[in-house]
C-alpha cells in the first residue's frame, strides 16, 4: 500500500514557465545538501520550460543572510524576477542558534514576499541531524529532493501572481 500524504501533490495545470525569470539565493553552509537542493530546483524549473539563461543563482554566507540577500537580488539589475527561491540548510547544534535563526528567517522570508509583492519560495530545511538533511535533498538513495518542490512552487506562484497583474 502506498499513500502519499506529504509533498505538493499533483498540479492541476501544465504551467508554461518559458517566459519566467527566477532568482535563487542560497546559503553556503552545509554545501553538499545545498548543492543537491539547488540542482533539484533548477532541473524542475527547466522541466516547466524555464530557460537556463533566465535562472540567476546568487549565494550568501549562511541562512541568517537569506532574507536580506533575497531582497538584494530581487532589487538588483539582474531582475526583475517573477519569483525567488531562498535555499538554506540549518542543522541543530548544541546551542540555541538553530532556534533563533530558523524562527527569524522563516518570519522574514514570509514578510519579504509581501514587501516585494512577489513570491518568495521557502527553501529552508530545519533539521535535527545531518542525516535528516541529506534525506530531504535526494542525497540518500531513494529519498525525495525537496528542491524539486521549490522549483515547481516558484513556477506555479509566479504564473498565478502574473495572471493577477494583467
Ligand atoms: N548557517 C546555516 O545556513 N546553517 C547552519 O546550520 C548554521 N549554523 C550556525 C551555527 C552557529 C553556532 C553560528 C554562529 C552560525 C551558524 N550559521 C548557520 C551561520 C548563520 O546563518 C550566519 O551566516 C552567521 O551567523 C552570520 O550572520
From TrEMBL:
Pathways involved: Cofactor biosynthesis; riboflavin biosynthesis; riboflavin from 2-hydroxy-3-oxobutyl phosphate and 5-amino-6-(D-ribitylamino)uracil: step 1/2
Keywords from the named record: Riboflavin biosynthesis, Transferase
Keyword Phosphoprotein attributed: no
GO cellular component, one term: mitochondrial intermembrane space
Molecular function terms from GO: 6,7-dimethyl-8-ribityllumazine synthase activity
InterPro entries with a match to the protein in the record: LS (IPR034964), LS/RS (IPR002180), LS/RS_sf (IPR036467)
GO terms of biological process kind: riboflavin biosynthetic process
Catalytic activity: (2S)-2-hydroxy-3-oxobutyl phosphate + 5-amino-6-(D-ribitylamino)uracil = 6,7-dimethyl-8-(1-D-ribityl)lumazine + phosphate + 2 H2O + H(+)
Pfam families per UniProt: DMRL_synthase (PF00885)
EC number, as in UniProt: 2.5.1.78
Assembly notes: Homopentamer.
Function of the protein: Catalyzes the formation of 6,7-dimethyl-8-ribityllumazine by condensation of 5-amino-6-(D-ribitylamino)uracil with 3,4-dihydroxy-2-butanone 4-phosphate. This is the penultimate step in the biosynthesis of riboflavin.
Family: Belongs to the DMRL synthase family.
Protein name: 6,7-dimethyl-8-ribityllumazine synthase
Native organism: Geotrichum candidum
